[in-house]
Amino acid sequence: MKTTILSIAMTFFALVTFAQEKNKKMTFDVNGKCAMCKERIEKAALGVKGVKYALWDIPTHQLAVIMDERKTDAMKIKTAIVAVGHDTKELKATKEAYESVHPCCRYREDNTDDGADH
Amino acid sequence: MNKYKVVLILTVVPWLIFSQEKVEGIIVEAGNSNTAGLSGANVYWQDSQMGVVTDIEGRFSIPYKKEYDRLIISYVGFESDTLTIKEPKTIRHSLKASNELDEVVVRQERDAIQKAYFSPQNVVTVNSAELLKAACCNLAESFETNPAIDVNFSDALTGTKQIQMLGLTSPYLLITQENIPMVRGASQAYGLTFTPGTWVESIQITKGAGSVVNGYESISGQINTELVKPLTDTAIFVNGYGNENGRYELNTHLNKKLTDKWSTGLYVHGNKRTQKEDDNRDGFLDAPIADQINVMNRWQYQDAEKGWVSFFNVRFLNDEKQVGQVNFNPDTDRVDRNRGALSGAGVWGGEIDTRRFDTSLKLGYVFPELPFQSIGFQTAYSLHKQDSYFGLRSYDINHESIYTNLLFNSIIGDTRNKFKTGLTFAYDGYNELVNTTDYSREDKSAGAFFEYSFENLEKVSLTAGLRVDSHNRLGTFITPRFHIRYTPWEKGSLRGSFGRGKRAANIFAENQQLFASSREIKILNSEGDVYGLEPEDAWNYGVSFLQGFNFLGRKGNIVFDYYITDFRNQVVVDWENPQEVSFYNLDGESKGSSFQVEVNYELLPRLDFRTAYKYYDVATDYKSGSLQKPLQAQHRFFANFGYKTKARENGSQWKFDYTLHSLGKKRLPDTSSNPVAHQLAAYSSPYNHMNAQITKVFSNAFELYMGGENLSDVQQSNPVLGGDNPFGPNFDTTIVYAPIMGRMFYAGFRFKI
């Protein structure tokens, strides 16, 4: 039974991974706190070649992207995001990049959501 | 064989060169020896900016630096592993399948409507709170608190307010209702009064060229009205209004959510004026005796999961107006041209009866997996019948209209580069009878459009649109329109635009106030396709600068606008001879320029101040020479104060609103050839017009309001020229430059649950 489930799961993964989707939808965590962060994060993500759509949600800190898998992957997007100062689950921004963000966006010190104030 | 060698060498060479600084390898699945590598796994250095994803074969290559020593390998559906790596090397690592998913793909909820934040177009949105500042009563009157639009009386009889933008009257605007052209053709004169104010959810005013999506007709701007939606409007809404001049209005909305996906709304409006009002004692009604019933039913279908949105509307309107002398009785005093006078009493009057049926269907589909891609389809049918007479003249028009638009939205590359493209089909059938002359015609057009927009969320955004239309009277022509926005510094926004507009002028429908005069109507050209006249064709250019600021800790902004409309051809409406009105093709120049400066500032907490100064220079080459547009105030000043007390928890609060319009002198049409008694000065005198309103909100469910219009009690002393002999040669009700009604108070209530 377990092997059946596993093989079904594997088939599914194989489908997902081997078909390089033109419009791959993906959501992952990006740290930030306000509308300025949102603009910065979305801009960085859209700056990666192959990213078609980027929407960062302030309350959930989720970045939804649609990308062309033949041209890019999630790690490349995350690399671009940490470069402008926003931490992801895997990659973390350098101290310099983090300090380049506007003082009101310093999510590491105070991670409350203040999207409404900006 | 040789090919493989080359590939092998090419693959190996970079490894040799960079092998000192990289960690490379393959990620496979544990306990599954026969599979290839895991593709799409994350490989990254802990707390670093360095990460890669394995390729289709499960291979990766990640730069190595001394500062990093922990390499994390993670993949959805597998347990993450952390490897300690002290030197560049090649590794083979297997991941164990896990039952937990540590990266969940969250289904994202989409907004029903997405709006661009930094629009390259100069758009002013009037929301419902702003609309409540001037409680009366229909769309035409909704612009009193907004300096982008000027509101004037169109004539001395019908009480109709006419709007202007950039110094041009409403026919030069594209007026749409939920992006379907609405006030056009036969409904041009009174169409705005056929949308009750309570039906309006918001209004978007675009100055200048505007978008190509909704057609080629707009010249100086576009006004779009969003109506209340069954899904979001309150379940029950009742509004009653009455004023001291005997106008009563009643609005009711009933909305019901039928299922998850279906909602419906029924909107009923009625207004009535039975009281005969002749405040200035000139023997003529200051405002018509009127009766309107207006019923709309909307159906809304929304399936956010599958991405479908749809609206279906049906509307029926019946509007009756009686104008003219106070003691006019249509049953006995109507003069029938064929049979002669009914009573012979010589009482002048008229009636305007309008019936209108509208139906429209909108279908929108947003691709669930691609939120940036959508298809929209809209189709509308309307039948407008106006039967009217003004003294001896009769004017009947039936206008049947079909409009269809198919629209596809998507992106090029990414969401910074968007486009809209589609097809438009329009049909207008006019049955028009001016006295006994038949001017019936049919207009058909088909067109295609493409609009590209660029938005990089920062300095620059632009919209460039082009449409090609083929019209049986206007010919085949292209309409380019372009908008750009540039942010030179923080809170500053510089906009520029240019664009073309072309239209067939419906000279009688648009100028029907001229029927209520003894002027002889003349059309001086005969070769053209529309009433013998050429279509109107104009270019509009504009620049605008917006600067937001913080002064004494409060927010404000200042806007400078400068727009020019340059007519290639215009149907000139020439009433410089008091005995005639003539229509002819422009021979020479016709140019309208407008300058506006507007300041918005929060003076004190909850006290908002808005002020504007406007200057217009609208000059046209008439047969008698270049003249400023008649009845146009070249200088206008506007101020509005709005104050709200702090709202209590149940929503109760007071709201105060005050608006001042200061109008400079206006050039009056030439009356020098009239007998001295019927001559007017060359210019009217300037005046101030003030409105104020107080609203007491008792709770979220109930509020009362009362207000006054024309508080300074300015009145035009002689709105009807030659009124002593209305069937005589000097009768003219069209030269109106100041309010006809004096000071007037009103009150009303709103109830909603």
Characterization of the model:
Chain A is of the alpha+beta class and 118 residues long. Chain A has one domain: Alpha-Beta Plaits (2-Layer Sandwich), CATH 3.30.70.100. Helix content of chain A is 37%, strand content 16%. Chain A has a three-stranded antiparallel beta sheet with strand order 1-3-2, covered by helices on one side. The N and C termini of chain A lie far apart (54 Å). Chain B has two domains: 94 residues, Immunoglobulin-like (Sandwich), CATH 2.60.40; 527 residues, Maltoporin, Chain A, CATH 2.40.170.20. Chain B has four helices and 44 strands. In chain B, a hairpin with a 3-residue loop joins β29 and β30. The interface between A and B is large, with 42 and 36 residues.
Distance between the termini of chain A: 54 Å
Uncertain parts of chain B:
13-19, 100-117
Which term fits the overall shape of chain B?
elongated
Count of discrete alpha- or pi-helical segments spanning 4 or more residues of chain A:
4
For the largest sheet of chain A, list the strands in their spatial order: 1-3-2
Return the structural class of chain A: alpha+beta
- Basic shape of chain A: globular
Q: Low-confidence stretches of chain A at least 5 residues in length (pLDDT < 50)?
A: 13-17
> Mean pLDDT across all residues of chain A, rounded?
80
Q: Distance N terminus to C terminus of chain B?
A: 81 Å
Please tell me the CATH architecture of the largest domain in chain B by its name.
Answer: Beta Barrel
Give the CATH superfamily of the largest domain in chain B: TonB-dependent receptor, beta-barrel domain
Number of helices of chain B: 4
Largest sheet of chain B: 22 strands, antiparallel, barrel
InterPro entries (chain A): HMA_dom, HMA_dom_sf
Domain HMA (chain A): 23-89
Keywords (chain A): Signal
GO molecular function, one term (chain A): metal ion binding
